[in-house]
Amino acid sequence: MAEPVNNLIDLLLNENIKGLKPYESARRLFSGAGNKQQAWLNANESPFANEYDIDAQRFNRYPDCQPPAVIDAYAQYAGIESDQLLVSRGADEGIELLIRAFCTPGKDSVLICPPTYGMYAISAETCDVGIERAPLNADFSLDVAAIKAFKGKVNLVFICSPNNPTGTSVDKNQLLEVIEHFADSAIVVIDEAYIEFDRDNSWATQLNQYPNIAILRTLSKAFALAGLRCGFTLAQAPIIQALMKVIAPYPIPEPVAQIAAQALGQNGLATLAQQVGVLNAEKAELKKALMAFNDIALVGDDKANFILFRTPQKSALMAHLVANGILIRDQSKQVNLDNCLRITVGSPEQNKQLLSEISRFFTLQTSTQEA
């Protein structure tokens, strides 16, 4: 029976989908690791797990499409109006909604600036939308001239700041130049998934000045709620209203709404501030320790909850860490990131374990070379 079914799938499958490769998420790359792994430092997750209360009284009812308690709390947190906000299943759904709402399949294109987050391209490909590229400069700043050359050729310009995986924040003057250049032709999408680690560079308070920007946010990183899958799109009301036309009717499960509202309450925000402080301190210690290794060179900046570094022994070091229960992320396939690995800042215990294994790796390498 398998062969007829496979023939049917081949017959019916969207031609645009056939050649796609799924996004290589941290979980997919190590789906068979199970509980053997002790330190997950590859997905930019928080090492903290916080407790929340759940009320099951409404589980028999469909949830609100846009839960008021979540919308109002996040709008207050971000300093915007409630009609300038949409909550979705992670910021990833926000990416897809923007593409579906503002790009016509087979006709329009988006612009990305690699090296950057991979889901912009994946979502565009899935929606049969073209992808243009203006790679970052060698110092990971925007190539503004290259970006501006795409005016009239793209509907969306995706810019990640702080950028994943380089940890760099985009210069505000550069970004303003891009926003104003595309004012009458494209929406500039600013991905602020890591903004809690770089709060002074948010564009949220400037929404009213620029009708062609949309901002992506998430509870997955600093809020320590990656398992919740809750993200936000911030924009002027006309963009939000357009996204409401293409979002699913019940996108936010009731338990997700309850937990998100608690995370955005007074106690939740106090916890957020405390844990971001811990991670920033741990990040500084990690950077200092990594710089002591001769074969490691830090790459990019530290405006997020991860550190990117380059080593000529990338593959061997990665294999050693995996074999010893530590998962980090290989970024060497990205533009200008040859031999680069990315470490998520973990708990003090995880970071100590990581550094111990890196030190042991280089000691073993030296011993082997001297033998």
Automatic annotation (TrEMBL):
InterPro entries: Aminotrans_II_pyridoxalP_BS, Aminotransferase_I/II_large, HisP_aminotrans, PyrdxlP-dep_Trfase, PyrdxlP-dep_Trfase_major, PyrdxlP-dep_Trfase_small
PANTHER family: HISTIDINOL-PHOSPHATE AMINOTRANSFERASE (PTHR42885:SF2), HISTIDINOL-PHOSPHATE AMINOTRANSFERASE-RELATED (PTHR42885)
Pathway: Amino-acid biosynthesis; L-histidine biosynthesis; L-histidine from 5-phospho-alpha-D-ribose 1-diphosphate: step 7/9
Name this polypeptide is given: Histidinol-phosphate aminotransferase
Protein species of origin: Paraglaciecola agarilytica NO2
Residues the record lists as N6-(pyridoxal phosphate)lysine modifications: 221
Entry cofactors: pyridoxal 5'-phosphate
Record-linked CDD domains: AAT_like
Encoding gene, per UniProt annotation: hisC
The UniProt record lists the keyword Amino-acid biosynthesis: yes
Reaction equations catalysed: L-histidinol phosphate + 2-oxoglutarate = 3-(imidazol-4-yl)-2-oxopropyl phosphate + L-glutamate
Family (UniProt): Belongs to the class-II pyridoxal-phosphate-dependent aminotransferase family. Histidinol-phosphate aminotransferase subfamily.
Pfam name, any one: Aminotran_1_2
UniProtKB keywords: Amino-acid biosynthesis, Aminotransferase, Histidine biosynthesis, Pyridoxal phosphate, Transferase
Assigned EC number: 2.6.1.9
Subunit structure: Homodimer.
Ranges for domain Aminotransferase class I/classII large: 53-358
Molecular function terms from GO: histidinol-phosphate transaminase activity
